[in-house]
Amino acid sequence: NALTTVEGDLLKLDEQLSKDAKLGEIFSSPLLNKAAKEKLIDSLGKKSEITTNFFKTLLENNRMAETRGVIAAYKSLMEAHRGIVSVVVTSANALNSKDLKQVKDNLTKGGLIKDFKEVNVVNKINPSILGGMVVEFGDYTIDMSVASRLAKIEKLLTDSISFEKTLTDLIQGLRANKRNETEYIQQSLSEIQREVQQSDMSQKSVAIDKLGYLHMLGYDMNWASFNVVEVMASPRFGEKRTGYLAAGQSFHQETDVLMLTTNLIHKDLASANAMEVSVALDGLAQVATRDLAQDLLGDTLAVVGHPRPYIRKQALVCACRLVTRYTEGLHELVPLLKERLDDPDPAVVASAVSVVCELAHANPHHYLSLVSKLYRLLTSSKNNWMLIKIVKLFAWLTPIEPRLAKKLHGPLSQLVSTTAARSLLYECIHMAVVGGIIDVQLPVSDSTGREVDFAELCTQKLELFYESPDHNLRYVGLVMLAQLQAHRPELVAAHYHTVLRCLDDPDVSIRMRVIEVISGMPTCKTLVPTVKHLMPQLVLSNTVALQPDRIATTTADVDLDELQSLPLTDAAGTSLVSVHGSMVLARGVGISNATGNPKYQLAAAEAIVAM
């Protein structure tokens, strides 16, 4: 049949190659072109059409140098086809026929070789094994040589006297060697370099653990990148975790060995062990390059539906990191995010919202399809932190979809009226301002039950911020008041006296925000008290003599010409306000109510001039 025919052709060619060594050199020579090699093959005797076509294929793919290997592989396949197995017995000295027969009988009677009609035993000589034998058949190797036994004994002796240090020993040694810490660390690094070359994965893992600790102290560990990948590939979870932690700690976008981790991470993401999946997701999120993201995004998205909730959470966060590297994969992630917004586990839903919030900041248009589910969460969730993120999302989505303003008016006004969480209240007011919801003409109820405009309700709630003793709350309250002032200045003006009191705050950043607000609300009634409040803060010298008796203190209308010509002078008679309205700041020792911040003084002066 065809198999036997091809075998005969190959055996004849093998015999010719064995007799003529130059023939093999010609086959592998790059100097001889394909046409000449084809003529040479034809001249070696008549062959079947299958054999001829096969050699033409080798020739076309520049694989003629592999001819002897191809023939040997075909012979092995034919032996297996006929039920014949070849056993190679390597010994230090030649074995007699009795010894070879005993090896054959032990293999067949011991059940190591089954379902074969015939066993061929071949003896090879290798003096380096010292004694004993090495038996090889199929994919099996039985090493009973003296050399391998001596190697095992040597390893046991070496391991027993090495006394390698653990991470705990390293830390204790650092504390005990404060005076010669650098010398101790260099000695430890030398030991680690030897340990990572050992074949024992447990010892290599401990070495990487110590190296990671030294890396946190500022010592480079990039030279051990390949050893880190080796530990990542360990079948033991503790060692694998050490490898992934070290990779996340030391790998960067230009690390050469990152390309070697693709299949490793792919395998771990598909593992039945949830802990291995978890550590792979964590590591991938930290070391992902564009190429890794492109290759492994599909595997990561497949884990988004994992039975374990904490794996689903990690997969969403990891996928978020990957699509920031490989933006073309975003269209694959968005439908899965939509599904996870209905996840039965609240923590997974919160993670999905966080991922959407992170990605939508760059381009919110991609997430308009999620509006219905986000609206449902806004009206049903009791998780304030998730509500904050949802409100932020709607603040980005409303400007590109104005119809959302009317839809969100009710839920948002309800949150503003009822929530006790200041962080959520701030985000709601911010969203109402930037999203134009305060312009929707629908009444809402304030804390007394009175129907008011939504913008007025927001203004009332902002008092909780800028009247708070907490400086951070006062600052953000004034920032938001300035934003609201751009839309509804008349509402902000009603809180003039409360805002003005904030000018006495010792925090200059708060006073800067107050100046920003009050400079936008000057009237004939408020101008004089505002200037009176600001002027003392511009005085830097105790020689400056203000004349407050000349400044009107009533709420009657003020003659602005008179105010401009008001003789505010220092002791030498130099006017602090020029006829052109510019402010002259005196130099000298600051008095108690003056701020020492020139930037603030300039802002206050500019505010007075502008008003």
Characterize the structure shown.
This protein is mainly alpha-helical. It is 60% helix and 5% strand. The strands form 3 sheets. It has a 4-stranded mixed sheet, with helices on both faces. It has a two-stranded antiparallel sheet with strand order 5-6. A two-stranded antiparallel sheet has the order 7-8. Strand 3 and strand 4 form a beta hairpin. The radius of gyration is 41 Å and the shape is elongated. It starts with a helix and ends with a helix. The model is unreliable at 540-560 and 562-595 (pLDDT under 50).
Overall body shape: elongated
Oligomer: single chain
Residues in helices, as a percent range: 55-70%
Which structural class do the helices and strands define?
A: mainly alpha
Instruction: Provide the residue-averaged pLDDT.
Output: 82
Specify the number of helices. Answer: 30
Largest sheet: 4 strands, mixed
Distance between the termini: 107 Å
> Mind telling me the C-alpha Rg?
41 Å
Describe the structure in brief.
60% of the residues lie in helices and 5% in strands.
Output the keywords.
611 residues; mainly alpha; four-stranded mixed beta sheet; two-stranded antiparallel ribbon; 8 strands
Write the layout of secondary structure elements.
Layout: H1 2-19, H2 21-28, H3 34-43, H4 49-60, H5 67-81, E1 84-91, H6 97-109, E2 118-125, E3 133-137, E4 140-143, H7 146-162, H8 167-176, H9 181-195, H10 201-216, H11 225-232, H12 237-250, H13 262-269, H14 274-287, H15 290-303, H16 309-325, H17 330-340, H18 346-360, H19 371-380, H20 384-397, H21 404-418, H22 422-434, E5 444-445, E6 451-452, H23 454-466, H24 471-485, H25 489-493, H26 496-501, H27 508-518, H28 527-538, E7 544-545, H29 560-564, E8 569-570, H30 598-610
Parallel strand pairs: 1-2
Antiparallel strand pairs: 1-3, 3-4, 5-6, 7-8
